[in-house]
Backbone:
């Protein structure tokens, strides 16, 4: 099985952005800034899950649990997206 480099790049970019936001959250002095920076990497996914009716299940999650529930599947989606991009590019070149 060939390693999907594009998917790994997508995952690395997301991981770097997530780590940056978490670092900024804990270096922020106030609670509001911490909340905003912790929410940034998972806000779109949480909004999508909420629009699917899963909002009540997500309201009592800790930040760690929210990241596990949301960010981990995002890595899978990003890796698959990279695979799809590589597949489309290789089909187009042939």
Residues:
């Amino acid at each position: 099985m060939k390693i999907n480099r594009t998917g790994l790049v997508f995952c690395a970019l997301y991981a770097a952005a997530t780590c940056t936001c978490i670092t900024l959250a804990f270096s922020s002095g106030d609670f509001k800034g911490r909340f905003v920076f912790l929410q940034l990497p998972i806000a779109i996914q949480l909004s999508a899950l909420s629009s699917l009716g899963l909002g009540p299940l997500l309201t009592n999650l800790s930040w760690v649990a929210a990241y596990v529930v949301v960010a981990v599947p995002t890595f899978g989606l990003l890796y698959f997206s990279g695979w799809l991009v590589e597949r489309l590019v290789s089909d187009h070149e042939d």
